[in-house]
Request: fold
Amino acid sequence: MIKTLSYKTNQFFFVLIKLSIIAFAFYYIYNRLTHNADLNFSVFVNFLIENDVFLLKNVIFLLFLTVFNWFFEIMKWKALVSSIKNITFKKALEQSLGSLTASLFTPNRIGEYGAKAMYFSSVYKKRIVLLNLLGNIAQMSITLLLGVIGLIYFTSYNTVEINYFKLSSFVLIALLLLSLIPIGLKKLPITIKGVSIEKIILFIKNVSPRIHTYSFGFSLVRYFIFSFQFYYLLLLFGVNISYLDAMAVITSMYLLASIMPSIFIFDVVIKGGIAVYLFSLIGVNEFTVLSVVTLMWLMNFVLPSIFGSLYVLNFNLPDED
Reply:
């Protein structure tokens, strides 16, 4: 009887946790849309209607880009996990969208690491966390590479006030710190969840080049999809700009937003502020830019997280292998 009660109690708290995750995610979405000092939601909706965003052809094309954005993210996750265990596309879909919902309101989406690990038995959990880190590093590397190229192009054709002394000082300090990291890692007995840095580096080295290639390849394709989606929205809102000029600003925006320390709750605000500043330099008004940023967030985070909430509800702890 005691065992039965304990099991029922555990099940009750497990369901309560899942419902709480979904409630927090939806409250965050609602609060972000209805308490935005920079973008009134009703004005935003009217702006979308006026610019024919809700026309069937536009809705289908925008959703098509969103679906393929997440398709390649799911394929990337499937490829990464295949290095330790084969999973189906359906499982990769469930893990990707479920972890998105669970991490939506966590700082820097840090909850994604733990959420994905929950789908696997304890023997895989540490490696799953490291594989998720590899996937994020691949996406960040693409963002940095294309962002630097875009920023150089953008600053060469637009007047941007840059304090080159402070910038060069920052770069030198950053390079110095990066050069000291390997020395520090060798001297200090640093561990992550009981795993030494040496073992983590060895794990990364043991991941096959094919998996790394898939990870970077899918990250690159994703980047071009969601950046083109941003450009397409600019065109819908009547911004007359060439693809090359738009990409220079968009890649610069993602670069600056990615290197600026923030928690995910304010990620949209920070990205919106950077986008407003950069696009203002080429004559695009603030409301249009904020509308694009908000719509990108709705399509690529909110919509998938709604579907992900169904996977969170149906989630069950895995059996130990």
